[in-house]
UniProtKB/TrEMBL annotation:
<feature type="domain" description="FPG-type">
    <location>
        <begin position="238"/>
        <end position="272"/>
    </location>
</feature>
<keyword id="KW-0378">Hydrolase</keyword>
<keyword id="KW-0511">Multifunctional enzyme</keyword>
<dbReference type="InterPro" id="IPR010663">
    <property type="entry name" value="Znf_FPG/IleRS"/>
</dbReference>
<dbReference type="GO" id="GO:0003906">
    <property type="term" value="F:DNA-(apurinic or apyrimidinic site) endonuclease activity"/>
</dbReference>
<dbReference type="GO" id="GO:0006284">
    <property type="term" value="P:base-excision repair"/>
</dbReference>
<dbReference type="Pfam" id="PF06827">
    <property type="entry name" value="zf-FPG_IleRS"/>
</dbReference>
<dbReference type="InterPro" id="IPR000214">
    <property type="entry name" value="Znf_DNA_glyclase/AP_lyase"/>
</dbReference>
<dbReference type="InterPro" id="IPR012319">
    <property type="entry name" value="FPG_cat"/>
</dbReference>
<dbReference type="GO" id="GO:0008270">
    <property type="term" value="F:zinc ion binding"/>
</dbReference>
<dbReference type="InterPro" id="IPR010979">
    <property type="entry name" value="Ribosomal_uS13-like_H2TH"/>
</dbReference>
<keyword id="KW-0863">Zinc-finger</keyword>
<keyword id="KW-0456">Lyase</keyword>
<comment type="similarity">
    <text>Belongs to the FPG family.</text>
</comment>
<keyword id="KW-0234">DNA repair</keyword>
<keyword id="KW-0479">Metal-binding</keyword>
<protein>
    <submittedName>
        <fullName>Formamidopyrimidine-DNA glycosylase</fullName>
    </submittedName>
</protein>
Amino acid sequence: MPELPEVEALAQHIREHGVGRTVARVDVASLSVLKTVRPPWTELHGKQVTGAGRHGKFLDLDVEGLHLIIHLARAGWLRWADTLSMVPPKPGKGPLAFRVHLGPPGQGPGFDLTEAGTKKGLAVWIVEDPKEVPGIAALGPDALAVTRDEFAQVMSGHTERLKNALTTQKILAGVGNAYSDEILHMAKLSPFATAGKLTDVQLDRLYESLREILTSAVERSVGQHAARLKGEKRSGLRVHGRTGMPCPVCGDTVREVSFADKAFQYCATCQTGGKPLADRRMSRLLK
């Protein structure tokens, strides 16, 4: 799943290669990804891309005052091409859902929005104000912009597990499953710790880890071609997706807790005092 660093890198790529170009045509291969009806996508035709930014994990293209908002969800991706096919995609064929031509079709650049798998979450909105998108309107403070005091405030009072608090976008915007594993590992905190019961010292470690993990990931990602971002993300991960491998800090085996439709990874020695976490459905530490 693309998280804050990857979306920031995609926004930077659009700023460098898309701003100043005109939307020549939009092809919608999957109507289900388009979450707004008015204004229609044809309103983008002939308008110039004037900016690109990010709201948490939402990508925002400013097209002369109209905002093309993209949420890549779990399996979506933006694929940039210097030349896109002029042949409109066939609806329902393959992973391609949405195409934006930033120049004459067949001659100019642009990008495709694609989504793998059967569980669909890729979403696109065309709005005059980004806050018309419910997910953006409900976002908590941005994980890269939040101050130490603001961070302490948003964490306080929450009875949720720390893993959940970090990845709940209404609490903190931009962090997902992978980077939350990395942040917790660096901070030496259990994913099952209660967010609202952290000490000042633990909050300091968590905030510093949040800043360091995300800042370094943004620095690695920005400037990379969109096609290389996924590989760049994986190369920087120390525990997430490394179940059964040695922890790079202490050498213990990286462990996994699975639940519903995803899983998280952690190091028992670094994070839980050497105690393996129980299956999440048991909601407690093994004794």
